Amino acid sequence: QVQLVESGGGLVQPGGSLRLSCVASGRTFSSYAMGWFRQATEKEREFVAAISQSASTTYYTDSVKGRFTISRDNAKNTMYLQMNSLKPEDTAVYYCAAGNLLISSKSAYDYWGQGTQVTVSS
Predict the structure, then answer these.
(1) What is the DSSP annotation of 29-63?
(2) End-to-end CA distance of the chain
(3) What are 107-116's pLDDT values in tens digits?
């Protein structure tokens, strides 16, 4: 089992930056592909980015390419999402997730954090 805890959300102006962190419990973090998802009010939870177990492969949804960077530090059991050039449409609760496949489908992820709110507004 893996327990995930996100942090780093907050209120930021358009064009600003935030870095989200996801800390995993347990000693098997490095065996999981990891992903970030987000859910805006009254919308479906959507894929944002994913990273392979070794961090050799990353995968982004088109709307964040060139602005967001996913990374992980297996020695620290931590995954990150660096978010730059934030837009109001990035406002959502951001969730980290752990699974066995590096794909965008949320049904493939077995473990989820509780989420952290990101609000982009002037």
Answers:
(1) GGGSEEEEEEE-TTS--EEEEEE-TTS--EEE-GG
(2) 40
(3) 999 999 999 9
